[in-house]
Specification:
The protein is of the alpha+beta class. It is built from four helices and eight strands. The strands form two sheets. Strands 4, 5, 6, 7 and 8 form a five-stranded antiparallel sheet that branches. Strands 1-3-2 form a three-stranded antiparallel sheet, with helices on one face.
Length: 152
């Protein structure tokens, strides 16, 4: 968990400094989160630069006015305080400007992925909300593209 918090802190610091990339120590969970960020278009990508030390370079992404799509990255559930959500309540969460990472028996998934999986199940599954990524307010065209990407 601390590695992931360090990664989030490095990303935030890099975005504030308008850096093109940041280097962090990776783990399986870090790679999983970074691949989701890359798929969602929140970062340009990432690359392992030293396998023996597990160092990863994260390439940050900016809009034309040099502002980031990422507004905040919050670690919600920690060891002592966990936040769970029932499957029936997943439909009520608005994914328009926030990206939720939920840990369920299917592993770590974004909220739209879990909603799609729940459509196939008799009883919808919930899970533990691990991370919330707040996306900056963007122009409506980009926001529509993000919504369409989640629907596909």
């Amino acid at each position: 968990m601390k590695k992931l918090q360090n990664v989030f802190a490095a990303i935030k610091t890099g975005l504030l400094a308008k850096a093109t990339s940041v280097t962090v120590i990776g783990s399986k969970r870090v790679f999983e989160i970074l691949s989701r960020f890359e798929n969602e278009g929140l970062i340009r990508g990432f690359q392992i630069i030293d396998i023996s030390k597990n160092k990863v370079s994260i390439y940050l992404k900016y809009k034309q006015d040099m502002t980031s799509l990422l507004s905040k990255i919050k670690v919600v559930s920690v060891n002592k305080e966990k936040l769970y959500i029932k499957g029936k309540l997943l439909k009520k969460l608005n994914t328009g400007v926030n990206m939720y990472f939920v840990e369920s028996k299917f592993g770590l998934q974004t909220l739209p992925q879990l909603k799609i999986r729940n459509k196939r199940l008799y009883a919808p599954l919930g899970g533990e909300i691990k991370y919330i990524v707040e996306i900056n307010k963007v122009n409506p065209k980009i926001q529509e593209l993000i919504k369409k990407k989640h629907e596909i």
